Amino acid sequence: MFPFDMTTIVVLILLIYVLSSIKILAEYERGVIFRLGRVLPKPKGPGLILVFAPIDRMVRISLRIETLEVPPQDLVTRDNVTVKVNAVIYFRVIDPSRAVLEVANYLYATSQLAQTTLRSVLGEVELDELLSKREKLNVKLQSVLDQQTEPWGVKVTMVEVKQVDLPEQMIRAIARQAEAERERRAKIIHAEGEYVAAEKLAMAAELIQKQPTAIQLRYLQTLVEIGTEKNTTIVFPLPINLITNLERMLDRMAKSPESPQP
Asked: What does the pLDDT look like over 68-122, one tens digit per residue?
């Protein structure tokens, strides 16, 4: 004879069924419930929910930001340079129902879409823009991906181009270009310095011309500066106008008629 009657057995079975139907969802999880094959209007969770199998079937969806690394992609820029580019994508599910209903595997679909979008968008720019305007390209990639994943209930929050691998000959060409650019800037700066120095010298010459005694003071200052070096070199300043006067005197003597011979 059975130790329990039929009612007790039924109650125990119902109790076990109810306990097995209890599901606990974390704060970042939502449960998309299919009841007899039809999805319920709103996802359940977080916290304690009931899933009555086999009538109900639950699909867990995480609402946290997912990080997806795009493997290196071979692409050709608009100026016909072959490079390898990889990136990282941050996205999250904002509509769990659409993430389950509209796409079979939103993680795989987003990964494949990111690879094709990376090749198509970066293939439309030149190498210089790819190297120097990454922020602009990141925003463009994020906008394109977000527009295409929006029907899946997925929000792309950020796209970052991690690394651009260039061919060895292209690296050498860029180095030569950078060196030539630095030399060009150095020559321009040197020419600007010479121009400013010439202007200052012209101003100084004009001032000395108005005050002739200023050149003598400059000679004396030069002698003081040389004397501080403690060397044996003696510098004697000779005014330029004195040499000019001597040349004129010699010219007049050479042109004057010779005295008569006795």
From this structure: 999 998 888 888 888 999 999 999 999 999 999 999 999 999 999 999 999 999 9
Helix (H, G, I), strand (E, B) or coil at 232: coil
3-state helix, strand, coil in the chain (%, to 5): 55, 25, 25
Is 77 in the same domain as 159?
A: yes
Identify the CATH number of the domain in which residue 162 sits: 3.30.479.30
Question: Tell me, what DSSP letter sits at residue 80?
Answer: S
Look up the domain containing 37 and give its range: 6-61
> Cα–Cα distance between 7 and 125 in angstroms, integer?
76
Q: What angle do CA 198, 203, 207 make, to 5 degrees?
A: 145
- β-strand partners of 62: 29
Beta strands in the chain (DSSP E): 22-25, 29-35, 38-39, 47-50, 56-62, 66-76, 82-93, 154-165
Preceding omega of 41 cis (within 30 degrees of 0)? no
Query: Which of 81, 167, 68, 61 is CA-nearest to residue 123?
Result: 81
Does this model's pTM top 0.85? no
